[in-house]
Amino acid sequence: MVFIIVALLLADLPYRMQDGTRIDIAAQAVCLPHKQVLFFGGYHRDVCMLGFKRSDDGRHFTLYNYGEIEEKNPDLKKAFGTGQEFHISGVFTYGAAQGYEKYDVVGMIDADNVELLIRQ
Question: Cα-Cα-Cα-Cα dihedral of 58, 100, 84, 21, to 10°?
Fold first, then answer.
């Protein structure tokens, strides 16, 4: 049991160490998954909270300044659920922002650039 608790605490260690640093990631625009709750199976809502799923490890993120980014890129909202990938760069903050506590997210990005990623 102790091993499981230690493993869970260390699972996000690379992200905790990146808190406050600039990151560049490739991620899909998705509806964020709800956290799983030990005894009740998880939270369930019919609302889609928009976020991003990192392409290389499947972890989820939110954008701190989503409204501002969406104004610059109105096609962003249309891409949710399509599997389209984006290149996101900005400053990473570890942990769930207020309002995202029930969602399985690693952290949020104060993005300065979000652009469509076209793979060759």
Answer: -70
